[in-house]
Design goal:
Length: about 240
């Protein structure tokens, strides 16, 4: 999705990715960029100042945001990935295999992996506290706001958002992820990737959601899923880091 008007004063030598280090949608795009070996500048946004720092998006105010060197702005992670693949890779990662299967599973990944991310990170009182403290260290907060988020953020994430999702689904966060990885790996079957012999854009989206959990201790719960992690490591080896 394209959004915003070119701001000449902000143009640079490389495209820019505005992101939050712990945002799953940011990790989706970042993983694609690294897989394709695209050079870009990474701009870490202060979570409490997104409106100001992303003012050039004409009101989008969410990460990730991709800005080309001519000032053109792309938003919304999956459409952004498709556009970047089209511009820098002739659409080869998206135009793989059966389009009906591809469309079904990119929607499935965006729906299910997205909804499973918060419960695994904030599903328990202790894990929620550990996560918010970790987030406060990884993100670009100010001195005071960092401490406020670390201790005031976890009751909201745990008591309101994560708890509600867990109750609605009925499964423990670990079980939910393992069930989703079962479905994902069953669909891949005996192939190396969803895309066959090489990752497709659907692989990169799924990988990005999982990768967003890797900075946290809860990632060990995903690592217990042997087939899922075998696929994850295969995708990881394709990244040009």
């Amino acid at each position: 999705m394209k959004k915003g008007n070119p701001p000449p004063a902000l143009m640079g030598d490389k495209p820019e990715l505005f992101l939050l280090h712990t945002c799953p949608f940011s990790w989706k795009v970042k993983s694609l960029l690294q897989h394709l070996g695209i050079e870009y500048d990474e701009v870490q946004v202060n979570p409490l100042k997104t409106k100001k720092q992303l003012s050039f998006t004409n009101g989008w105010n969410k990460v990730p945001v991709w800005r080309e060197t001519d000032g053109e702005v792309l938003v919304d992670s999956t459409p952004m990935m498709k556009e970047i693949d089209s511009r820098y890779n002739n659409g080869e990662l998206w135009m793989v295999g059966d389009s009906e299967r591809r469309d079904k599973w990119i929607e499935w990944v965006d729906e299910h992996f997205k909804r499973a991310t918060i419960p695994i990170l904030y599903g328990g009182l202790v894990s929620a506290l550990k996560t918010t403290i970790r987030v406060s260290k990884l993100e670009k907060f100010g001195f005071i706001s960092k401490r406020l988020y670390a201790w005031a953020g976890f009751p909201i994430m745990w008591g309101i958002i994560a708890k509600k999702r867990i109750k609605k689904d009925g499964r423990k966060p670990k079980q939910l992820w393992h069930d989703l990885l079962d479905d994902w790996c069953d669909e891949i079957g005996d192939k190396e990737f969803f895309g066959g012999e090489a990752p497709s854009l659907v692989d990169m989206a799924a990988f990005g959601y999982m990768r967003s959990i890797s900075p946290f201790s809860q990632f060990s719960q995903l690592e217990e899923h042997a087939r899922g992690m075998a696929w994850y490591r295969r995708v990881e080896t394709t990244l040009k880091i």
